[in-house]
Amino acid sequence: MKVEKNFGFLSRLGFLQNLASFFIAKLNPAVIHNLAKYMALKKVHYLSAIEEIDGDYLEFGVYNGSSFCHSLRCLRQLVRINNHVESTVCYGFDSFEGFGEFLPEDKHPFYEQINFETNYEKVDSRVKKVAKQLKYKLIKGFFNETLIVKPDSYGIKKARIIFIDSDTYSSSAQAFRFVLPIIQKGSYVILDDYFSYKGDESKGVSRAFKEFKEEGHLIVRHVFNYGMSGVVFIIS
Fold first, then answer.
1. Is the pTM for the entire model greater than 0.70?
2. Which CATH number fits domain 28-235: 3.90.1640.30, 3.40.50.150, 2.60.120.10, 1.10.443.10?
């Protein structure tokens, strides 16, 4: 009775609730997650812009370039708020051939080569159309080949945003070791698969992030969650 009193006629329109439920149930979970991820990236780019955090955008696990292109679009819109944003270089690291050799500890029912193979030339062409005046570099190769050098080898001095979308422990750990020398107070770290492996903190991205914090003696703060299993932190 209380619900009906507060919400009146609408509380009795069961068909509206059924209709909403029908469409939500039909939505592809990947679409829901990606929309939330785009909003998360927009928030983080905005927050780092108004805080005037220097450095570049680094994405590990570019896949088909959707998130990378979205970050470029966000940066372009933020130039009017902070014109230094235009000097940000976006770096994307990916094999564009899937995961490569799987370690036993990385085994997961969804993380298979066929789900993550893409085409470097097509991705680069897509990114180039979006980038326009903004600078970017797509670095092709497995992480155990491309991340064994220092960030300065690619011209990276500081990281303002680090987006880890590489799913497994081994690939994420390699990415974290690579960025450790270039993080700073105010660097944002976006982890797209933080709760994978049934929430086991001894596996996946969660384990790699824990080791990253310990190795760097870092203090981080949780900013927000997004999508199915994404989490954003800031180095404080």
1. yes
2. 3.40.50.150
